Amino acid sequence: VMGLLADLHGKVVREGEEAKKSFKEFSEWCEERSQNLGFEIKTSKAEMEELNAAIEQSTSTSVALSAKIDETALKLAGNEADLTRASEIRKAEEKDFSAAESELVEVIDALERAINVLIRKARNGGSAMLQIQRPGDIVRALRAMVEASMIGSQDAKTLTALVQSTQQESDTDTVLGAPEADAYENHSGGIIDTLQNILEKAKSQLDSARTKETSARHNFEMLKQSLEDEIKYGMQ
After folding, report:
1. In whole angstroms, how far apart are CA 109 and each of 156, 182, 185, 195?
2. Which string of DSSP letters, residue by residue, matches 145-164?
3. Contact 177, 186 (CB under 8 A)
4. Pick from 121, 122, 110, 208: which is nearest to 159 by CA?
5. pLDDT (tens digit per residue) in 90-104
């Protein structure tokens, strides 16, 4: 009996030691696991804070980019509208210049033809009709030249309208004050001198119109290039 009790006591002691050892190992594992979980939680919180900060930054950037996109779209629309308006204005200017240039070229051609005819007439002794006593003498001289087939009716029509327009300007100058020197000359000189004066004015007007057109075309091309560059870069 005593042997059995001794064996039983030894068994109980061994089992107790094994249980104590197992408990100690489990306790150590729990403590280690608790520490690891603490580190993981701390790390996760830090990562979460970083992610929240990144989200806030991305949200702020997104808002800023959206505003920039709206601003760029508005600017692009404005540039496209400006380019359209500038192109329309340029077309209208080109149309006006083309019409004015054609008219002036026609006037200059008619004047040069009429002057050449009159010069030949003067050389052949027909100087009486070349003198101007009154403003209307030029118109009557042009009609006479048409009747004599010296110039065409279209040239006479063009020159008559031009002479009458010039005379109206001279009359206006006279009413407003002393007329210019060439206004007196138009009334007292010969028809050739008068037409040559008008020819010089027409050539001056043509040169001025062409210079203005060249400048307007250059300015438009510069503006067009600038707007197209802004539109191109704005879409990138």
Report:
1. 12, 22, 23, 12
2. HHHTTSS-HHHHHHHHHHHH
3. no
4. 110
5. 999 999 999 999 988
